[in-house]
Design a protein that fits this description.
- The structure holds two protein chains of two kinds.
- Chain A is of the alpha/beta class.
- Chain A is built from two helices and eight strands; from the N terminus they run H-E-E-E-E-E-E-E-E-H.
- In chain A, strand 5 (99-104) and strand 6 (111-116) form a beta hairpin.
- By secondary structure, chain B is mainly α.
- Classes of the chains: A alpha/beta, B mainly alpha.
- The interface between A and B is medium-sized, with 21 and 28 residues.
Chain lengths: 170, 257
């Protein structure tokens, strides 16, 4: 057996300690999961107003995270905000009738995208969302100032339009 | 007046000269054909001196800084009924700022000054010159292993500091003040991103490691070989590397976040 010096042993221990610390940081602190299913598909949603939604905000169905917001930008032709969402492939059976709304966790919490699954009926022409699809039914963020303005002046929203359903959100 | 202006000029030229010499020193000690079999035992020895012996101060400071953060954070957050955000507060402040910066400052005081003094004494007692007489390049033999040891050690030390600090915050917040354990960790996990936060923490600590070790080695290599010179160089190492770390931290943070 080769004789190892105390120095070498403690340096090895030092390195191991560093690696263990790094692994703890990755798994316990950053919540990185080892069995990460890399398969995601992107869907797009056109909103009237995304509020203070951030990139990397969660996309949830009933509170369960199914994906993340990967990009927020403005459509060049329509000049409306577009949110690109990456949804894990295991949740591939989302109907195209699903609704995506910008919601807020708590009163001052962070904003996220809540998806309300829609019905699936082949006769009505609904399909499952695929990579690159667009969610037609969207709900904008509730902007507190607008809400107060509406309340104060009792201005009726024009309603009607497909995507302006923010005021009916609970 | 002319004296004053030329004094400024002389100062500037001297500083830039020193920067040039420091770069040349680093270049010749790092660039070249690697000689693993010859330099590896040296590297292990230096890793022991620079890294292993710094663990205790790093771990203890990390523990206390994490505990203080937990205590202070709790006292503020409890006013807004937001104790749940304690894990996030402790983790993000340690990972983004305190971990790399405080570890680098402690490292400069603990290991940097020792490196300067050691190399300075080698120079004052003409050990470096006698190495050259024996056709051993002191840059490759003395400077390079210490440089690599510093560059390897500080990121590891910063990681250890971060982990110990977060557990210190958990100790105070969860075990003493009664924040819910699950909320503490899950709030942390949903807000700490592996690449954005931990990656930047790592990049910062590598940059600080290069800067601190470089400053320490150059101050030792370039000092006036007297006892007063050694003491001045040691002080310079700590002052310059602390300032460099804090200044660079601002620049890196501005670039990254």
């Amino acid at each position: 057996m080769v004789k190892y010096s105390k120095t070498e042993f403690s340096v090895g221990l030092f390195m191991l300690l560093g690696i263990i610390a790094g692994v703890i940081l990755a798994l316990k602190v950053a919540g990185l999961t080892l069995s990460y299913d890399s398969g995601v598909y992107s869907v797009y949603g056109y909103f009237d107003n995304v509020g203070s939604l951030k990139v990397r905000a969660p996309v949830k169905i009933g509170g369960v995270v199914i994906g993340r917001v990967s990009a927020i930008y403005v459509d060049h032709e329509k000049l409306v905000p577009v949110v690109k969402m990456e949804i894990e492939s295991q949740y591939s059976e989302l109907s195209s009738e699903s609704k995506a709304s910008v919601l807020t966790a708590g009163l001052i919490g962070e904003q996220y995208i809540g998806i309300t699954p829609g019905f699936y009926d082949e006769d009505m022409g609904s399909t499952y969302l695929k990579d690159g699809d667009r969610i037609m039914d969207t709900g904008s963020a509730i902007v507190l100032e607008e809400l107060i303005g509406k309340f104060l002046y009792s201005v009726k929203g024009d309603g009607g339009s497909d995507s302006d359903t923010a005021s009916s959100e609970k | 007046m002319i004296n004053f202006i030329s004094g400024i000029g002389r100062y500037g030229v001297r500083k830039i000269n020193a920067l040039g010499r420091a770069t040349i020193m680093l270049f010749y000690s790092v660039v070249g054909k690697p000689q693993f079999d010859k330099n590896f035992p040296q590297l292990i020895q230096q890793l022991y001196v620079v890294g292993v012996q710094s663990i205790s101060i790093i771990a203890i400071s990390g523990l206390f800084i994490g505990m203080v953060l937990g205590l202070q954070g709790f006292n503020v957050l409890v006013r807004f009924m937001a104790e749940g955000a304690l894990g996030q507060l402790v983790a993000l402040s340690i990972i983004r700022e305190l971990g790399p910066v405080v570890a680098a400052l402690l490292f400069a005081g603990r290991a940097g000054s020792a490196l300067t003094a050691e190399i300075g004494l080698k120079k004052a007692t003409e050990q470096l010159t006698s190495m050259e007489m024996m056709a051993v390049d002191p840059l490759r033999r003395v400077i390079a292993p210490r440089f690599w040891a510093g560059v390897i050690s500080l990121p590891i030390l910063a990681t250890i500091f971060t982990v110990v600090g977060i557990y210190g915050g958990k100790l105070v917040g969860v075990d003493w003040l009664g924040v819910d354990d699950g909320i503490f960790w899950s709030g942390m996990q949903s807000n700490v991103d592996f690449w954005d936060d931990l990656g930047m923490c790592f990049i910062k600590s590598v940059v600080f490691a290069v800067v601190v070790t470089w400053i320490a080695l150059f101050n030792g290599y370039d000092l006036v070989p007297t006892s007063a010179g050694i003491s001045k160089a040691t002080t310079n190492t700590v002052v310059q590397s602390s300032l460099a770390v804090l200044g660079l931290d601002f620049i890196l943070t501005a670039l990254m976040f």
